[in-house]
Amino acid sequence: MLLRPSRPDIVDRAAGLTDGGTGLGLRTHRPEIVSGVEACRLSVLAPEDDLGLSRGFRAAVARRVALHSEHATLISEYPASEEPGLREVSHGGMPDDPRLAAVAAHVDMISREPARASRAALQALLDVGMSPAQIVALSELVAFVCFQVQVVEGLAAVNGAR
Protein backbone atom coordinates (compact mmCIF):
# COMPACT_ATOMS: atom_id res chain seq x y z
CA MET A 1 0.00 0.00 0.00
CA LEU A 2 1.41 3.38 -1.02
CA LEU A 3 1.38 6.03 1.71
CA ARG A 4 0.34 9.51 0.77
CA PRO A 5 2.30 11.74 3.15
CA SER A 6 0.99 15.20 3.75
CA ARG A 7 2.88 17.88 1.91
CA PRO A 8 4.97 19.70 2.71
CA ASP A 9 6.61 16.83 4.57
CA ILE A 10 9.74 16.82 6.74
CA VAL A 11 12.04 16.70 3.69
CA ASP A 12 10.21 19.55 1.92
CA ARG A 13 10.39 21.74 5.02
CA ALA A 14 14.01 20.96 5.86
CA ALA A 15 15.19 21.45 2.26
CA GLY A 16 13.28 24.73 1.95
CA LEU A 17 11.23 23.50 -1.00
CA THR A 18 8.43 25.72 -2.17
CA ASP A 19 5.84 25.54 -4.92
CA GLY A 20 7.48 25.68 -8.31
CA GLY A 21 11.03 25.05 -7.13
CA THR A 22 13.31 22.58 -8.92
CA GLY A 23 13.68 20.35 -5.86
CA LEU A 24 9.94 20.14 -5.30
CA GLY A 25 9.47 19.32 -8.96
CA LEU A 26 11.93 16.45 -8.66
CA ARG A 27 10.03 15.02 -5.71
CA THR A 28 6.66 15.47 -7.43
CA HIS A 29 7.81 13.30 -10.35
CA ARG A 30 8.63 10.40 -8.02
CA PRO A 31 5.73 10.10 -5.53
CA GLU A 32 6.66 6.49 -4.82
CA ILE A 33 10.01 7.66 -3.44
CA VAL A 34 8.31 10.31 -1.29
CA SER A 35 5.94 7.65 0.02
CA GLY A 36 8.78 5.19 0.53
CA VAL A 37 10.81 7.67 2.55
CA GLU A 38 7.79 8.38 4.74
CA ALA A 39 7.12 4.68 5.25
CA CYS A 40 10.74 4.15 6.22
CA ARG A 41 10.61 7.11 8.64
CA LEU A 42 7.58 5.64 10.35
CA SER A 43 9.08 2.16 10.50
CA VAL A 44 12.26 3.33 12.26
CA LEU A 45 10.66 5.91 14.58
CA ALA A 46 7.39 4.19 15.48
CA PRO A 47 7.45 0.50 14.57
CA GLU A 48 4.69 -1.85 15.66
CA ASP A 49 7.26 -3.89 17.62
CA ASP A 50 9.67 -1.45 19.21
CA LEU A 51 11.98 -4.22 20.46
CA GLY A 52 12.26 -2.40 23.77
CA LEU A 53 13.49 0.82 22.13
CA SER A 54 10.78 3.34 22.98
CA ARG A 55 9.58 6.08 20.68
CA GLY A 56 11.24 8.58 23.02
CA PHE A 57 14.55 6.72 22.74
CA ARG A 58 14.25 6.58 18.95
CA ALA A 59 13.39 10.28 18.69
CA ALA A 60 16.37 11.20 20.91
CA VAL A 61 18.70 9.15 18.72
CA ALA A 62 17.25 10.67 15.53
CA ARG A 63 17.73 14.18 16.90
CA ARG A 64 21.32 13.36 17.89
CA VAL A 65 22.07 12.28 14.32
CA ALA A 66 20.34 15.38 12.94
CA LEU A 67 22.46 17.56 15.25
CA HIS A 68 25.56 16.38 13.39
CA SER A 69 24.12 17.87 10.20
CA GLU A 70 23.88 21.32 11.84
CA HIS A 71 20.71 21.78 9.77
CA ALA A 72 18.40 23.79 12.05
CA THR A 73 15.14 22.91 10.34
CA LEU A 74 15.90 19.19 10.24
CA ILE A 75 16.99 19.27 13.89
CA SER A 76 13.75 20.98 14.85
CA GLU A 77 11.77 18.13 13.27
CA TYR A 78 13.07 15.90 16.08
CA PRO A 79 12.12 17.52 19.39
CA ALA A 80 14.55 17.25 22.30
CA SER A 81 13.62 14.89 25.10
CA GLU A 82 13.37 16.05 28.69
CA GLU A 83 13.40 12.47 30.01
CA PRO A 84 16.46 11.80 32.20
CA GLY A 85 19.25 10.24 30.15
CA LEU A 86 17.43 10.81 26.88
CA ARG A 87 17.78 14.55 27.41
CA GLU A 88 21.55 14.24 27.10
CA VAL A 89 21.24 11.92 24.10
CA SER A 90 18.91 14.32 22.28
CA HIS A 91 21.06 17.38 23.07
CA GLY A 92 24.31 15.76 21.93
CA GLY A 93 25.71 15.26 25.43
CA MET A 94 26.97 12.12 27.10
CA PRO A 95 24.51 10.52 29.54
CA ASP A 96 25.62 9.04 32.88
CA ASP A 97 23.72 5.81 32.24
CA PRO A 98 26.25 3.30 30.79
CA ARG A 99 23.77 1.86 28.28
CA LEU A 100 22.75 5.27 26.94
CA ALA A 101 26.39 6.41 26.93
CA ALA A 102 27.34 3.39 24.80
CA VAL A 103 24.44 4.13 22.45
CA ALA A 104 25.41 7.82 22.20
CA ALA A 105 29.05 6.97 21.46
CA HIS A 106 27.98 4.44 18.83
CA VAL A 107 25.55 6.84 17.18
CA ASP A 108 28.21 9.56 17.06
CA MET A 109 30.73 7.19 15.50
CA ILE A 110 28.34 5.82 12.89
CA SER A 111 26.93 9.21 11.88
CA ARG A 112 30.29 11.04 11.84
CA GLU A 113 32.90 8.39 10.98
CA PRO A 114 31.19 5.24 9.73
CA ALA A 115 34.52 3.78 8.56
CA ARG A 116 35.39 3.28 12.24
CA ALA A 117 32.60 0.72 12.65
CA SER A 118 33.96 -2.57 13.88
CA ARG A 119 33.15 -5.78 15.68
CA ALA A 120 34.41 -4.12 18.88
CA ALA A 121 31.94 -1.25 18.41
CA LEU A 122 29.08 -3.73 18.16
CA GLN A 123 30.43 -5.67 21.13
CA ALA A 124 30.29 -2.49 23.23
CA LEU A 125 26.52 -2.38 22.64
CA LEU A 126 26.14 -6.08 23.44
CA ASP A 127 28.16 -5.52 26.63
CA VAL A 128 25.60 -3.00 27.92
CA GLY A 129 22.71 -5.38 27.33
CA MET A 130 21.47 -4.52 23.86
CA SER A 131 20.22 -7.48 21.88
CA PRO A 132 21.31 -8.11 18.29
CA ALA A 133 17.78 -7.16 17.14
CA GLN A 134 18.01 -3.85 19.05
CA ILE A 135 21.40 -3.14 17.50
CA VAL A 136 19.96 -3.73 14.03
CA ALA A 137 17.01 -1.42 14.82
CA LEU A 138 19.40 1.25 16.13
CA SER A 139 21.52 0.90 12.99
CA GLU A 140 18.48 1.23 10.74
CA LEU A 141 17.42 4.38 12.57
CA VAL A 142 20.86 5.99 12.32
CA ALA A 143 21.16 5.01 8.66
CA PHE A 144 17.73 6.47 7.88
CA VAL A 145 18.45 9.85 9.47
CA CYS A 146 21.86 9.99 7.75
CA PHE A 147 20.06 9.24 4.47
CA GLN A 148 17.48 11.90 5.26
CA VAL A 149 20.23 14.47 5.88
CA GLN A 150 21.79 13.64 2.49
CA VAL A 151 18.45 13.94 0.68
CA VAL A 152 17.68 17.27 2.37
CA GLU A 153 21.14 18.66 1.60
CA GLY A 154 20.96 17.50 -2.02
CA LEU A 155 17.50 18.93 -2.61
CA ALA A 156 18.44 22.18 -0.88
CA ALA A 157 21.49 22.50 -3.15
CA VAL A 158 19.41 21.80 -6.29
CA ASN A 159 16.86 24.32 -5.07
CA GLY A 160 19.53 26.89 -4.20
CA ALA A 161 18.25 27.04 -0.61
CA ARG A 162 21.54 26.32 1.12
How would you summarize the topology of this molecule?
Elements (H helix, E strand, L loop, with lengths): L9 H6 L6 H7 L2 H15 L9 H15 L2 H5 L9 H6 L6 H15 L6 H9 L4 H28 L3
Short summary of the structure?
The protein has 162 residues and is mostly helical. The chain has helices spanning 10-15, 22-28, 31-45, 55-69, 72-76, 86-91, 98-112, 119-127, 132-159.
What does this structure look like?
The protein has one domain (10-159): AhpD-like (Up-down Bundle). The model has no long low-confidence stretch (mean pLDDT 85). It is built from nine helices and no strands. The protein is mainly alpha-helical and 162 residues long. It has helices at residues 10-15, 22-28, 31-45, 55-69, 72-76, 86-91, 98-112, 119-127, 132-159. It is elongated. The relative contact order is 0.17.
Give the N-terminus to C-terminus distance in angstroms: 34 Å
Q: What is the CATH C-level name?
A: Mainly Alpha
Rg value: 16 Å
Q: Fill in the CATH topology.
A: AhpD-like
Task: Assign the CATH superfamily.
Answer: AhpD-like
- Report on the biggest sheet: none
The proportion of residues forming helix, as a percent range, comes to: 55-70%
Structural class: mainly alpha
Low-confidence stretches: none
Please give the CATH architecture.
Answer: Up-down Bundle
Total E-strand runs: 0
Strand content: under 5%
Average residue pLDDT? 85
Number of helices: 9
Shape: elongated
